[in-house]
Amino acid sequence: MADFLRIHSWVPFSQANGPGCRAVIWVQGCTLKCPGCYNPETHPQEAGQLIRPEILFRKIARLEGKIEGVTISGGEPLQQIKPLIKILQLFREKTRLSVILFTGYTWSEVTEMKESSILFPLVDVIIAGRYQDNQRLAKSLQGSANKTFHFLTERYKQEDFQKVPEAEVLITPEGKIISTGIDPFFLSGGFNGKKR
């Protein structure tokens, strides 16, 4: 299904998923299954919805001027590397939106991926590493102390992430309540968009 990106959900406006106001995409599917993962509902490979990268790109690109960038989390984005690269290429070529990517893979694992040379020019910041419950931090978009920040452009610095709120509650136009951020409030019955 290289022509499709499998996503869990996305939101157009968030203040708690990176510097500035950002669209957020949570991809569906992850085989890493870190103990204590904040988003276990994003693990099943066959759940979520399939969407063409071009269609999701158009929905988000319309927001340019209202948002600073896009944050991609999951699930595990790098387990869908081909459609991920497709949407990132569109963001880079057709917008000025920044891109922040969360991955459970370590930085050394990411650099060893054959697609890394294509991926790196398309992303501003990669936050890498499996979530470690016994090293939990939940601040400045760092879920656990072992997670590492990799600034691939000069757009952001570490201090930009220290200003990001730890949590927010969003209400969708359909009335769905989403608690999101690095240390969100737990709400019963709704997707908790907490990051790893």
Keywords summarizing the entry:
globular, 196 residues, disordered C terminus
In short:
The chain has 196 residues and is α/β, with parallel strands linked by helices.
Question: Mind explaining what this structure looks like?
Answer:
With 196 residues, the protein is an alpha/beta fold. It has one domain. Helix content is 19%, strand content 29%. It is built from five helices and twelve strands. The strands form three sheets. The chain has a seven-stranded mixed beta sheet. Strands 10-11-12 form a three-stranded mixed beta sheet, with no helix packed on it. The protein has a two-stranded antiparallel sheet with strand order 7-8. Helix 1 packs parallel to helix 2. The protein is globular and about 40 Å long.
- Major sheet description: 7 strands, mixed
**SSE-based structural type:** alpha/beta
Outline: globular
Domains (count): 1
